Input
Amino acid sequence: MQKNLLKESKDSIKLATDYLKHGKLVSIKTETVYGVACNPSNIIAIKKLYNLKNRPSFNPLIIHVNSVKMASDFVDFTEDAKKIAHAFWPGPLTLILKKKKNNLINDFSISGLDTIAVRMPNSQIFLNIIKNFGNPIAAPSANKSGYISSTTAQHVLDSFGSKVDLVIDSGKCELGLESTIIDLSNEPYIIKRLGVLDIKKIYKKTGINVKTERKNTKNINSPGQLEKHYSPKTPLIMNIKIPKDGDAFLSFGKNYIDNHKPSLNLSSEGNLKEAAYNLFDFLRRLDKLSMKRIVVTPIPKHGIGITINERLNRASS
Ligand code: TXA
Ligand code: MG
Output
C-alpha cells in the first residue's frame, strides 16, 4: 500500500487540514472528480500544485467553499449568484464572479484575473476539511494537465504517485464529470464549461438565463479549456460502430459488438448517467492497454450525453 494513501476517516480529515496549513497538497474526492487541494493564499503551495500538474500558469484554479458567506469574503456575490447558489449548492456548479480585494486568494492561483471561479462541492469529506481548515481551498482536477481526470483514488496515484503528499480514498466519484462553469461576472451570463448540471435547469429553477454557445462547443472557452484535453495517450476516435483488430473499444447500450476484445461498455442499459460515471475510469483502463487506438461508439447527444460528447471530442482532437 502506498504511504501517501489513507481511507476516509476522522484522522485523515485532521491530517489533511494539517497538511494544507503547512503548504502541502492533498487529493480529496468531490462528487464530480477528485481534486488536488492546496491553500490558495500560500504561493509556495500553489506553485507546487502547478508543477505537479504541469499546469500552465494562465489556467486559474477553482476555489472551493462551504458557504456563500465564505465566498463573499473574496468575490462579489450578486443577488443572481445567491439565487443560483441557493438552488444548486452544494453541487456540480461553479460560478465565476468579480474578485473582491482580499488576503485569502493569492493572485497566482487565479492567474491574475479580476474574476474568481467558486464552487461548493457536494462532498462531505471536502466540506469537513474546509470547515476544519477555516478558509477556502483551491482544487483543480487531480490529473496531469491535458490528461483524463481522476474519479478514483487509484487514478490519482496513477497520475502522481508519491508526488502528492496525501490522497484520501473516499471511493468512486458519484457523477464522474467536472462541474458546469457559468460566468456571472458580466451580462449576458454565459456558460464557460459544459458539465454535469444542465443549464436549462438553472432557468427552470431560478428564472435566470444563462446563454449557451452550443453551436460549436469547442468555442466554450475558459482560459484552461485548451482544445486538447481529457486525452488518453492512445489516439481516440469517436463514432466508430465497428472496431478493428488492434482497437480498444468503448461501447454504449445494448446494440454493440459484444465479441470484440478488449472492450468496455459505458452502460449496457443505455443509461447516460451511468456512462458519465464510468467514462474517465474506462478511458484510463483502455489507455493502460496501449492499443493502437481507442474507438468509441456513437453516444446519444442529449442530456448529459452532450457533455460526454464534448469531453470525447476534446480527447480526440
Ligand atoms: O468539478 C470540478 O469543477 C472539479 C472539482 C475538483 O471541483 N475541478 C475542476 O478544476 O475541474 P479544473 O482546474 O480542472 O478546471 C477548472 C476550470 C479551468 O478550465 C479554468 O480555466 C476555469 O475552471 N476557470 C477557473 N477560474 C476561472 C475564471 N476566473 N474565469 C474563467 N474560467 C476559469
Ligand atoms: Mg481539469
